[in-house]
Write a structure and sequence with these properties.
disordered C terminus; 2 domains; 14 helices; 45% helix; Non-ribosomal Peptide Synthetase Peptidyl Carrier Protein, Chain A; single chain; TIM Barrel; binds flavin mononucleotide; 325 residues
Length: 325
């Protein structure tokens, strides 16, 4: 499929997730078939003030390409300037109009903008002029159940030059509660001419296919379902191709985890990798015998060697122990 002038290998994407979709995560998901991956959301303000930490969020490896960089902010000029900064580091720019986090809302950004359609129009117009890259926007259904306005916002974005719209069909006040209302994705597909990307509650390969079929969306985006489960993306693709869906073998799970851990070490150094790895280890262990005990154990592990041993002990078998890192 195409997003603007960008030709993609498929239509299963990895959702942008702050605190999750860093370089190692994106590399793993790319390997398992994500046709497009996004950075964590990046503050436009932070970028143009040249904050070192903010700039680091733009780093990537060529393996991840095509990469979308997602920006959030509330001021059209600032967003345009940040876009100019981000453009050399990305193959696509995405604008976040859906984040429900209080610290983002307080600045008038993220889903707070769903209450200011005019400003969204100004931001998209300013950013459109600032980059030749494909431009997408990510929205929610509205601020709350009394102000569902995703159609209005999406049409505005389309008129101002956006190349696609991603909809997570929950309101800001819903947060992550209730169920994502996929009928809204269908409504959006009928209302605009640019591609629609559906997001929300894809936890199984069947969910992925069902969203595509029932909404007619052009692409889907997998978020929480990918936690500890990169195979989900691959298996949605398998289903799409009418090929068998396969659970990962123990060896595959073990090797993927080891690789993920090594990528954390390369990216953050061994000490920081320990902290980063904990939540992922817990996710990879979900549903396995003894997972609760394992979680408890890794929360007390403090050294890189401790993490390595925990992976070998829980996920490895005698034959796999000692595989090169
Ligand atoms: C931990 C976490 C962080 C997220 N961060 C972002 C973000 O930075 N930008 C964004 O547009 N959406 C963000 N989202 C929303 C996801 O992109 C996605 O739209 C949402 O989780 C619904 O999809 P899912 O049910 O597949 O998780 C985040 C979601 C989670 C769970």
């Amino acid at each position: 499929m195409n997003l603007g002038n960008l030709n993609l290998d498929g239509n299963i994407f990895l959702a942008p997730m702050a605190g999750i979709t860093d370089i190692p995560y994106r590399r793993i998901m790319k390997r398992y078939g994500a046709a497009l991956v996004y950075s964590e959301m990046i503050s436009a303000n932070g970028l143009i003030r040249a904050g070192h930490k903010t700039r680091q969020l733009m780093l990537s490896s060529t393996e991840e390409q095509p990469l979308g960089i997602q920006l959030f902010g509330n001021d059209p000029d600032t967003m345009a300037e940040a876009t100019r900064e981000a453009t050399p580091h990305a193959q696509l720019i995405d604008l976040n109009f859906g984040c429900p986090a209080k610290k983002v809302i307080r600045t008038g950004a993220g889903s707070a903008l769903m209450r200011e359609p005019e400003r969204i129009g100004q931001i998209v117009a300013a950013v459109r002029k600032a980059t030749p890259l494909p431009l997408t926007v990510k929205i929610r259904a509205g601020w709350d159940s009394t102000s569902i306005n995703y159609l209005e916002i999406a049409r505005l974005a389309e008129n101002e030059g956006a190349d696609a719209v991603t909809l997570h069909p929950r309101t800001r006040s819903q947060g992550f509660g209730g169920k994502a209302d996929w009928t809204l994705i269908r409504g959006l597909k009928e209302a605009i001419d640019i591609p629609v990307i559906g997001s929300g509650d894809i936890f199984t390969p069947e969910d992925g296919l069902e969203m595509m079929k029932t909404t007619g969306c052009d692409a889907i985006m997998v978020g929480r379902g990918s936690f500890g489960n990169p195979w989900l993306l691959k298996n949605i693709h398998q289903l799409q191709m009418q090929l068998p869906v396969k659970k990962p073998s123990q060896l595959e799970r073990y090797c993927t985890l080891r690789e993920h851990y090594q990528m954390f070490i390369d990216c953050y150094g061994p000490r920081r990798a320990v902290g980063h790895m904990r939540k992922h280890l817990a996710w990879y262990a979900r549903g396995m015998n003894g997972a609760a005990e394992f979680r408890h154990k890794i929360n007390r592990v403090l050294t890189p060697e401790g993490v390595s041993d925990a992976i070998d002990d829980f996920f490895g078998t005698a034959g796999q122990k000692g595989l090169p890192e």
